[in-house]
Amino acid sequence: MCRSTIAVLLFGTCLGPAAEITIRVDTHKAEFRLDGELVTVYHFGPDATKPYFWPLLAPGQVRVTRGYPIEEGLPHETKDHRHHRSAWFCHGDVIPEGLTLVPSSDRHVKGADFWSESKGHGRIVCTEARMARRDTLVTHNVWQDSAGTRVLDETRTISLHAVADGRLIVMTTKLQASVAPLTFGDTKEGSFAVRVHDDLALNRKKPKSRMVNSSGDEGESTVWGRLADWCDYSGEVDGKHVGIALFDSLANSPRAAWHARGYGLMAANPFGRSASGFPARKGQSDLVKLDRGATLTLRYGLFLHAGDEKTGRVADAFRQFIGLQKSEDEKR
Predict the structure, then answer these.
(1) Structural domain count of the chain
(2) What is the pTM (predicted TM-score) of this model?
């Protein structure tokens, strides 16, 4: 539960003559708008098992992620994987040394499972949300098991940018082993993820649906488990050609392998190794570990665009994403 009551705030930053960003923060959510149009709402209230973005709207105000389970009863939607809540960040197995946790119902999980919503799953609980630099949302989260035992602390910063004729959400997470040394378990179930609108999913076999990565690989069989700077899903929703891409910062260490599926999941996973089954991690057993008090910072982008990855200028948007990070680093 968010312990701070946050007054309603409204801030704007001009990113050029045609782009004004506004962020409106309420007690349990934050609205991000571009030139007055809603781009997304970030939900971090006590009812959420983990914070998530929903809806996510491409240019033309087209939803590009699935509504279920946040909004039920939409026509022709799939109802699998209830834990796929539009767009989110977490990991499926976080193992704190020396702490006794409530066991997960998944026998493969050695620590706390923040990915699924099966019996014994963990929760990511927001304890603070505030504005920074008048154009960025900063939240503090506590990752805890189902009994409320603290596993780690996280500071998350989120901003919205107009780039390459589309809408770019930048999320930076700082994970801190505040309680005990941590190991991020070897599982494919992670980490910065979206569940795309069903009409985009390859399994629907719509003529314009595509999944492609920055290397030009296309389709689940060549994208899944590989390394790439970005991955993009596009297709036609309500008669409009739109897409959504995830960006993995060049500065991230480790870089992500892609847990991307034809049924509509697309996730950048920096923690999976050989046991995850990722082809790019075959034979690797170097699990990501943090000493007590140490931190790991990762940065990702979520780009909403018209058209496919070419007409939607996804590669251009990725270059601007990298440029934004360099600019932020220079300010520091």
Answers:
(1) 1
(2) 0.94
